[in-house]
């Protein structure tokens, strides 16, 4: 796909995943220490949504409307973009 075209804004092939990382951004925090519970709650993967911004320009967005962190502390969020092929 030509990266200079706007075709990517309507492609169902793109998804974004979010991960909770330690404050330095080096270690993924998947579970709460000593518990089976996940450190984050909500949808951790989002498909691409074609939306308009506040100026009316069309763009590609990934919406994570219900994320929550279940432990106290300082963290970073890591977002990874994937293109599904097949």
Automatic annotation (TrEMBL):
Gene Ontology cellular component terms for the protein in this record: nucleus
Keywords: Nucleus, Transcription, Transcription regulation
Annotated ranges, domain Velvet: 1-86
Pfam family, one: Velvet
Entry's localization field: Nucleus
Protein known as: Velvet domain-containing protein
Source species: Coemansia pectinata
């Amino acid at each position: 796909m030509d990266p200079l075209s706007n075709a990517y804004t309507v492609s169902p092939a793109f998804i974004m995943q979010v991960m909770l990382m330690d404050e330095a951004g080096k270690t993924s925090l998947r579970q709460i220490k000593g518990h089976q519970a996940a450190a984050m709650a909500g949808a951790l993967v989002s498909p691409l949504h074609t939306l308009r911004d506040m100026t009316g320009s069309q763009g590609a967005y990934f919406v994570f409307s219900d994320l929550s962190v279940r432990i106290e502390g300082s963290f970073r969020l890591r977002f990874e973009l994937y293109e599904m092929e097949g």
